[in-house]
Amino acid sequence: MRKIIYFALAIGGLALITPKESSAQHRGNDREWKHEKEHRKYEEKRDKEERKYWEKRDKEDRKYHKKVAKYYRKEYRHGPPAWARAHRYDNRHHVYFRDYKTFYDPYRNGYVYMRNGRWSFSANVPSFMLNVNLGAANIRVVKDVPISRHPEDFYNDYRWD
């Protein structure tokens, strides 16, 4: 009978001890969970600040590129040159000024001419053509060269002497 009593007390003692250990483990997990919660909150705050930073940068970039595009349209796209109306030119093809060995390139919005044996580009009318009435000059509209290509590369294919 004593054995049964000792056995019952031992089991009861184990039953009393076990919940204490589990509750101690639970408190430790609670501290870890609190730490993880604080860390997650910190990461969310950091991510929000980073997102805000990149959104601001993107907004500034869009503003800058919009400004550059506006400047480009204003400064570099004036439409057809002054002599175009006299020749009924519509800015869709290259033009070759035969007498001056000069091209008008509408894609680059400028003139390509031979200088010292090399091709040169100028956004303005070349100096040797300043006093020439380009509206009455002899021209040839070059339709067989794509507008995105440089006309001087095909000079030997379509020059007219």
Can you describe this structure?
Helix content is 52%, strand content 14%. It is of the alpha+beta class. The chain has two domains: 77 residues; 75 residues, no CATH class. The protein has a five-stranded antiparallel β-sheet, with no helix packed on it.
Topology summary:
Elements: H1 2-76, H2 84-87, E1 94-97, E2 102-105, E3 110-115, E4 118-122, E5 139-142, H3 155-158
Antiparallel strand pairs: 1-2, 1-5, 2-3, 3-4
Radius of gyration: 42 Å
Q: How would you classify the helix and strand content by structural class? A: alpha+beta
Q: Main β-sheet, in a few words?
A: 5 strands, antiparallel
Average predicted local confidence, pLDDT: 81
- The CA-CA distance between the termini, in Å, is 132 Å
Let me know the number of strands: 5
Number of domains: 2
Protein name: RcnB family protein
Biased composition (Basic and acidic residues): 23-52
Region (Disordered): 21-52
Give me some keywords for this one.
161 residues; rod-shaped; alpha+beta; RcnB family protein
What's the quick description here?
This protein has 161 residues and is of the alpha+beta class. It folds into two domains: 1-77; 84-158, no CATH class. It is built from three helices and five strands, in the order ααβββββα.
